[in-house]
């Protein structure tokens, strides 16, 4: 009972510390370039219930905001999303995989294995994972999003990039507010069908679903196993490192991040939600665009709750209010925020070299995150013992 009381007390404290000003509103859109295309892609590829996906995704944002009081959003699992979109995997397997991921992370947490891994994996490898993820996200943004609307979309992206360069870090005039406004104006002129949006208004709730044992077993093999290395590297260890970088006074532990990761995935499947995680990229994006408290995550979650509860019937229309070139620009700057974290190890030749090797492996090789995580950790420990030619 004491743990429950402490959790509620912490949530109350986090709530009172939250801000809902223009900077939090700006920061709320710092991760939309990653999340929205993956969510739309999974809904379309697998025929998922739109209302359930959006509502549950929004609820998990709000839950995380209260637990941490930080701009630490939840994200779709990237390896899972990529496989689902490419292979059109059914919803029942997705929900089974989500539950399998939740169980796996809970076991890693309660057994203390996640703490041991956190001690074994060095900072240079974490920085490499973050840099590699930044490379991969930037590549996706430039190839798939910025060029999505032809010449007009390119000009929109250029205008958004100029606005961001001049206003990034500006507390009085936060960049994302103007970038999103630019996208909304573009969408209203060229993209949005107002009558279709109006006709789609209704009220929807999530659908209850109970994954079967075959769902869980198949999901574990097909989706959970490819996801776990990326989750450990980016969702757990890199996120913990980033909270330490940005909010050292908070003292967030690996175990706490792993535990809340497990909890959200033990809930998602039963409400027909997609598997989700924490992510250093999401926090970097929110922070880069101005957020400093969990208020940005509450605002972000409220966006998805509103879309799911009232507009999910016409989601394919209303989502056009966020043009892909705008999402691409936001994603590029989120990627840059992640990649720039490598600066603090640049004074060490050995650490910097290991981080770059891990980054290139993670960014460009199949299963690069797991290969980079394992190989980088081994190499770092060999360097520490003096078994390689690296020297600072």
Secondary-structure blueprint:
Blueprint: H1 2-17, H2 22-27, H3 32-46, H4 50-68, E1 74-76, H5 78-87, H6 91-110, H7 113-120, H8 123-145, H9 150-167, H10 175-190, H11 194-199, H12 213-246, H13 254-267, E2 276-278, H14 280-288, H15 295-310, H16 315-318, H17 324-339, H18 349-364, H19 368-384
Which structural traits does this protein have?
two-stranded antiparallel ribbon; 2% strand; 72% helix; 392 residues; mainly alpha
Question: How many distinct beta strands?
Answer: 2
Shape: globular
Note the total helix count: 19
Question: How would you characterize the largest beta sheet?
Answer: 2 strands, antiparallel
Radius of gyration equals 20 Å
Helical/strand content category:
mainly alpha
Strand content: under 5%
Give the neighbour order of strands across the main sheet. Answer: 1-2
Q: What's the helix-strand series?
A: HHHHEHHHHHHHHHEHHHHHH
Average predicted local confidence, pLDDT: 88
The end-to-end span amounts to 51 Å
Secondary structure: helix percent: over 70%
Poorly predicted tracts of residues: none
Description:
The protein is built from 19 helices and 2 strands. The mean pLDDT is 88. The termini are far apart. Strands 1-2 form a two-stranded antiparallel sheet. 72% of the residues lie in helices and 2% in strands.
Short description:
With 392 residues, the chain is an all-alpha fold.
């Amino acid at each position: 009972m004491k743990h429950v009381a402490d959790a509620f007390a912490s949530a109350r404290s986090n709530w009172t510390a939250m801000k809902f000003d223009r900077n939090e509103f700006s920061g709320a859109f710092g991760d939309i370039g990653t999340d929205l295309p993956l969510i739309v892609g999974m809904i379309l590829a697998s025929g998922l219930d739109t209302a359930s996906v959006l509502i549950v995704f929004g609820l998990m944002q709000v839950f995380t905001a209260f637990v941490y009081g930080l701009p630490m959003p939840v994200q779709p699992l990237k390896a899972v999303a990529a496989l689902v979109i490419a292979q059109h995997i059914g919803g029942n397997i997705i929900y089974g995989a989500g539950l399998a991921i939740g169980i796996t992370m809970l076991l890693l947490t309660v057994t203390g294995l996640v703490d041991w891994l956190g001690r074994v994996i060095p900072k240079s490898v974490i920085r490499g994972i973050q840099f590699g993820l930044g490379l991969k996200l930037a590549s996706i943004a430039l190839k798939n999003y910025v060029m999505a609307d032809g010449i007009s979309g390119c000009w929109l992206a250029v205008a958004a990039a100029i606005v961001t360069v001049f206003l990034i870090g500006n507390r009085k005039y936060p960049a994302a507010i103007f970038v999103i406004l630019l996208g909304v104006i573009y969408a209203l002129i060229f993209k949005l069908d107002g009558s279709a949006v109006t006709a789609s208004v209704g009220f929807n709730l999530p659908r209850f679903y109970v994954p079967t044992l075959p769902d869980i077993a198949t999901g574990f093999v097909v989706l959970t196993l490819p996801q776990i290395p990326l989750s450990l590297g980016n969702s757990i260890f890199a996120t913990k490192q980033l909270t330490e970088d940005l909010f050292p006074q908070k003292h967030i532990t690996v175990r706490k991040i792993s535990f809340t990761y497990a909890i959200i995935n033990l809930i998602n499947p039963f409400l027909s939600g997609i598997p989700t995680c924490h992510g250093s990229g999401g926090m970097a994006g929110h922070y880069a665009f101005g957020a400093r408290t969990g208020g940005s995550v509450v605002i972000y979650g409220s966006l998805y709750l509103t879309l799911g509860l009232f507009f999910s019937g016409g989601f394919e229309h209303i989502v056009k209010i966020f043009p892909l070139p705008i999402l691409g620009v936001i994603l590029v700057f989120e990627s840059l925020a992640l990649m720039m974290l490598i600066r603090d190890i640049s004074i060490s030749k050995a650490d910097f070299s290991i981080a770059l090797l891990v980054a290139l492996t993670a960014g460009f090789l199949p299963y690069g995150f797991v290969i980079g995580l394992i190989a980088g950790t081994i190499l770092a420990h060999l360097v520490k013992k003096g078994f390689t030619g690296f020297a600072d």
